[in-house]
Amino acid sequence: MPPPSGRPRRAILGTILAGSALLAGVAAAHYAAPLPDGAVARPARQFGLPFAGAPGPDSWLLGQGYGNTTGAYRQRRSTYGNLQGIHAGLDFSAPCGTPVRAIGDGVVAEVDGPHGSPPHNVVINHAGNLSSLYGHLRVRSSLRVGQTVKRGQVIGESGDSQFTCVSAPHLHLELRDRSHQRFFNPLPYIAADWDSLALAGNFGRGYEYDLDAPRRWQTPDTQPEARRGGALLNEFRRPWPPAPGGAR
Question: Is 17 helix (H, G, I), strand (E, B) or coil?
């Protein structure tokens, strides 16, 4: 197709090359080695919540927590098998269409990238080689890759993982290293009253017991980091509760 009139071919070629370089960078990130601890910002409550306003039954609540949840345990060999068997993010219950906000200043890295959490997702890169993923968005975000966003800026609308807006309406939020190989517990990174948030809302936020070490990974702030493709962390010899119908 010929270039549109009034726009030099050199400019168009530059745009294509820049876009190709950006896509190559994104693809490389998905297959890059995990970043070492020294290259990743330590948790310092440097981020905010992805929703504005007070939590409540008509606004938003903390649903499933990060980590060794009973829900993830039941699907540790399927849905969460590539994430060492744990729920690698936070689920916030919210009515479809609730504005989702950037948890920190950053640059849009991907819109509807290859990170699951359908039907739509957004990835934002932050300082300290951290990336936040916002999943199960209702519609494709209007953001552009490379666009700068500020903390608290609306970046999309919450949706439903079952695409119905009545089955499981929630936002899935993950915090990763920039290589997308390491998954961190967002709690120590996000300034919030987690003790109060943990009191309300519920869809499987309880934690699976390992009766050989029953106190391990039983609180929201003691959940382990996950690495993509690593061995299952919760293949317990004596689990409790047992998974209905066996492990999947």
Answer: helix
**CB-based contact 156:172 (threshold 8 Å):** no
Q: Which residue has the tokens 């010929």?
A: 2
Please give the span between the terminal C-alpha atoms of the chain, in angstroms, as a whole number. 50
| pTM score | 0.87
- Token readout for 63 is 């649903």
Helix (H) or strand (E) holding 157: strand 154-157
CA–CA dist 227, 66 (Å, integer)? 14
DSSP designation for 38: G
Residues 6+ apart with CB under 8 A from 108: 122, 123, 124, 125, 143, 144, 145, 146, 147, 148, 149, 155
Asked if pLDDT for residue 87 goes beyond 60, the answer is yes
**Of 156, 144, 143, which is closest to residue 117 (Cα–Cα)?**
156
